Amino acid sequence: MNALVTGTSRGIGRAIARALAGSGTRVLCHARDPEAARTLADELGGVSVVGDLACVAGVAEVARQATAAAPELHLLVHNAAVNPRPDERLDGFELETYRAVHAVNVEAPILLTQALLTALRAARGAHVIVVSSEAGQFSGGMSGTGLSYCTSKAAVNAFVLVAAQALRADGIRVNAVHPGWVRTDMGGPGAPLSADEGARVVVELALGEGGATGRFFDATGAQAW
Ligand SMILES: NC(=O)c1ccc[n+]([C@@H]2O[C@H](COP(=O)([O-])OP(=O)(O)OC[C@H]3O[C@@H](n4cnc5c(N)ncnc54)[C@H](OP(=O)(O)O)[C@@H]3O)[C@@H](O)[C@H]2O)c1
Known about the structure:
Layout (H helix, E strand, L loop, with lengths): L1 E4 L5 H12 L3 E6 L2 H11 L2 E4 L5 H14 L5 E4 L16 H21 L1 H6 L4 E5 L15 H21 L5 E5 L17 H13 L8 E3 L2 E3 L2
Parallel strand pairs: 1-2, 1-4, 2-3, 4-5, 5-6, 6-7
Antiparallel strand pairs: 7-8
The protein binds NADP nicotinamide-adenine-dinucleotide phosphate.
The site of NADP nicotinamide-adenine-dinucleotide phosphate has 28 residues, from α1.
């Protein structure tokens, strides 16, 4: 099985890549820093993929490298994301921050999925997983972190639903996952879960037998959007 995981330089993405490789998956380890991608790919016996997901050209470059390495892509994990202002409120809203956050958290997953459709279709039964957040969960109230981040996760959740419907006929599943509150650079040192624990829900969904598509999962199972 070939899997592309974005944002494997650190945090949950690196833990996802290690866990997938540990179960026999050939992992395409993406990072924007070439050294970070290469080091992890060497460790895991995988392939390094390099590109900045904040710009359209960078996304295209990631897709080009991934397709060359894996013409059949069975699993695509959109993990990379940013939250530069966790305390951003409406009073202090800045359009620049909003656009930067939405470029990585929303536009990149959409564009990268689109660019990899041929490889996903070729794999017959591929799975696209977006590492999202309860910060974008309508039924959860979307509180506790920045405005740009919350709206980006709500938007990418909408993408999951739309893409799941669009790709159902191709046999491609698309799901979203909330990993929990995880001790990473983004989650901070006070979070209760380790990166390995945060990765678990993603990896279990990726390797599991279930046929769900268009759903939002956390560690306890499928949740309301
Ligand atoms: N931590 C939590 O508590 C928590 C909770 C809910 C959801 N999540 C979600 O879980 C996922 C992983 O979060 P994390 O906590 O592991 O975050 P993190 O430690 O901050 O890591 C973020 C990853 O995204 C990459 N990235 C950021 N901007 C990029 C860009 N422009 N191009 C390419 N890669 C880029 C980073 O690469 P660089 O090293 O190059 O910056 C890094 O590998 C995210 O989708 C996040 O929203 C996290």
